[in-house]
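Methods: example folding runs. The two proteins below were folded one after another, and each record is reproduced exactly as written to the output file, sequence line first and structure-token line second.
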Amino acid sequence: MSQSPVERACRISPHRLRHAARVLRAGGVVAHATEGVWGLACDAFDLDAVMRILALKRRDAARGLIVVAHSADALAPFVDPDAQAAWQRAHASWPGPTTWLLPARDTAPWWLTGAHDTIALRQTAHPETAALAATLGSALVSTSANVSGRPPVRSAWRARALFGDGIDCVAGGVCDRPGVPSTIRHALDDTTIRG
């Protein structure tokens, strides 16, 4: 089986990557390295898996979640088609460590937008996160591996110690910018929400 360029850039084994994707397809939660911290991932379209992550984090569903993908094409269906200028602003910065709040399409799942009319999207340049999404063939929820309000964990063993059996698989990987979470910006007015 040939690998895509995204999968070839990945620093974890193809076997582990395929295993993590199978776990995600089955509704599992995967701990993985992201740009700056360790994250918890699931298939963005799997409501039960998203609810598991929210329960693990003790996070209010109304806050919404970050959705990541290996390509902008995988994120475009979440965005209001009338928000072309905002989409172009976000698209021009990707791939990279910037998450953009974009006007959500009315069909975007409520469990991703929460109580907002925007959705948080990022086309990641992080090799393992991009490869995980590419291998799954879908966008991922990717949220920091922590209990809400507490610092995110910075290693696989800390994620496992904190969440135990709540994690179905540890994908592995290395953070590119340890301890520095992604920047969050609002695509309508280019304001920075989190620097």
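Second run, written to the same file directly after the first:
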Amino acid sequence: MDQFKITGKVGQGAHGYVMKGFNKFTGEQIAMKKLIVKNLDEGIPKNIMREITALKVLNHENIVEIIEVIPYGMGLLLVMEYLPSNLQEVSKNISLEPSKIKRYLKMLLDGVKFMHENHIMHRDLKPANLLISSEGLLKIGDFGLARIYAENEPEREYSHQVATRWYRAPELLYGSRNYTNSVDMWAVGCIAGELFNRSPLFPGETDIEQLAIVLHTLGTPTEESWPGLAQLPDYNKITFARSAGQNWLTVLPDCSHETLNFVKSLVVYDHRRRLTAKQAINHLYFSEKPAPCPLVDMPKEDQLKFASPRKDLDVICDEFDQIFKDF
């Protein structure tokens, strides 16, 4: 613990808050996330174990690297590589050209593909959880809702209360517990649409409004377009006015045919028809011009100054200072 020095505050994740610092012996910048264990007698909570397990298993350039896990008091400190920004901040503060959007989506899909090949679904993909390194690399972070799954367990039940609302697949909104890693692919489609429009694709303020916006945009689903729809747990709890769906040229104006097809192939009601990460990487969208921007030309640290430490975390900073004094 003596090798680390805290220098500032970063933000909060799904299950803990994050500080930044550096290794005093190597000079390497690090991020430190404090995870609280409320009852030690009951052991380490599943969500914390999932995050640690996922990060230890997933060694990939587009996934955040975990450096060390340090037990402390009623919790754990996760030491990870420090990344100065995230895709939400970048897309809000920088006007991204199509080639840069394409590179970010390619990096995201490379990370998701590796994640799914290792039988881990993230379940909370969103721009704020896609971190950007000082070299411009996109890395998937915040695995607090991640879950290991097996391909041969199609009937296994999971919690449907996952994923941030704007990126939550419709089967989750209808209460399904028998979903697959395709919920991550729906989220990728929502992220792509948001990058093209610079605004969320389905910005609901409640779960019901979220579902209403999805149905209004994509059209009212049927048993033909979504087999098993009527069997979803919450299907009969609410009805919506019928919708023919919107024209995609209105949903994503100024986008090419292949760009529209790429997004449409991800935000599909029937999860079996959604592109997998491997299929998405090979979509014609990535082959048409412009080509994905070279990494060397992607936004770098000097362009990410807006990603300064978040406000209202002085108390957290003081607490981390006390942790280091205790050690």
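Comment on the second run: The longest strand covers residues 4-12.
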